[in-house]
């Protein structure tokens, strides 16, 4: 306390107390209305739409057979087709991560968005709109591919289908495990506590390539519900479509939890992280707070938590 010039008593807090009060006044998450009004939020949603569109267009485009298969070398032809599709999807994903990762995280996959949601790296609103944008982008990409492909070559058009000798339960396991590896790779690359050990976009793209090499012949190697949805809508093919939603989504959830609780490099106690935090520019804020009574705050998206 101190005496004011008018003879009254004025409460004066120490600098430490002022900082403590300021930090205590900060809510941990951006309110719903504030997030919806954010330009960056809608820019991120548009980025997810575009990234998924490009991945489906390039990846499924590699599935189109432009030349008839040679029966004499059928095995060799299948290997070439498998490698072509695996590389196309891996390169497409890696490219989009490099181009869009700093904007939205470049999930381009509902399984990745759900994994980020359950580990509280993104909000429910962001995850929901990301998934909607991804599904619309995949459908748009498949529709563009349909229009660019000659009618005689449109059969299949990248629709994911089970091998005739693969049971749906086995297909579920393949999609589950492939997606789990993909999500583990994504989570490792967005971990802010992890030392930078290489090219993030390349490692994520290679995770998809590996998944394709593992599961392409048995299930078509979706690992991405939106990637399967787009061609299914355009070609009206829905046989065993549930496998490509349930398997990747559950694989993503388990992959997210697995990294969060077994591989998280944080030295502190393991805990769920939030992705939306208040900017803690204390010096600037304290000056303004002296006039506003701690009532005004700036917000930003913490890039370490949810961007690649």
UniProtKB/TrEMBL annotation:
A Pfam family matched in the record: MIP
Keywords assigned by UniProt, alphabetized: Cell membrane, Membrane, Transmembrane, Transmembrane helix, Transport
Region Disordered, residue ranges: 285-308
Gene3D superfamilies from the UniProt entry: Glycerol uptake facilitator protein
GTP-binding keyword on record: no
Membrane topology, as annotated: Multi-pass membrane protein
Gene Ontology MF terms in the entry: water channel activity
Main location: membrane
Annotated GO CC locations: plasma membrane
Compartments reported by the entry: Cell membrane
Membrane spanning stretches: 49-67, 87-106, 127-149, 169-190, 202-222, 242-261
Similarity section: Belongs to the MIP/aquaporin (TC 1.A.8) family.
UniProt cross-references to PANTHER family, sorted A to Z: AQUAPORIN TRANSPORTER, MIP17260P
Protein's name according to its UniProt entry: Aquaporin
